[in-house]
Amino acid sequence: MPYNTHSNLIGSIGSIVKRLERVERNSGRAYFVTKQTTNYVASRYDVVLADTTGGSIIVTLPEPLLGIVVIVKRLNSGANSVIIIPNGTEKIDNGTSLTITTQYNSYTMTSDGTDWWVI
Hints:
Largest sheet: 5 strands, mixed
CATH topology: Jelly Rolls
Order of helices and strands: HEEEEEEEEE
Number of helices: 1
C-alpha cells in the first residue's frame, strides 16, 4: 500500500488536537492553531503548524510567563527547517534555539517565567 502523506498529516494533527483537548479540559485554557509559511511571532498557547515549502521559518516565542505553553510542528519534508528562538535573552532548554529538520517532528515548550523548557 503506498505511503499516504495526506492521511499521515491528518492523523498527526488529529493526535495533537486530542492531546490539546485533554490539556484544555484539565486546565481551562484555549489553544490557537495557526498554519504559517513565513516567520512568525508566537503568542501564548499557540500551536504553530509550520510549512517550510517556500523556505526556512523562524518562530519567535512569546515573553516567558509562568506556565504558558507553545507547540511548534513541522508539516513537510525538504531542505528547509523550522528554527525556534526566544524573544529575548531567555534560554530554551539552556540553549539559544531549537531546530526542526524532520517532517512531522514537533516541540512542546512551557515556561517557568524566566526560560523555556521542552516537555
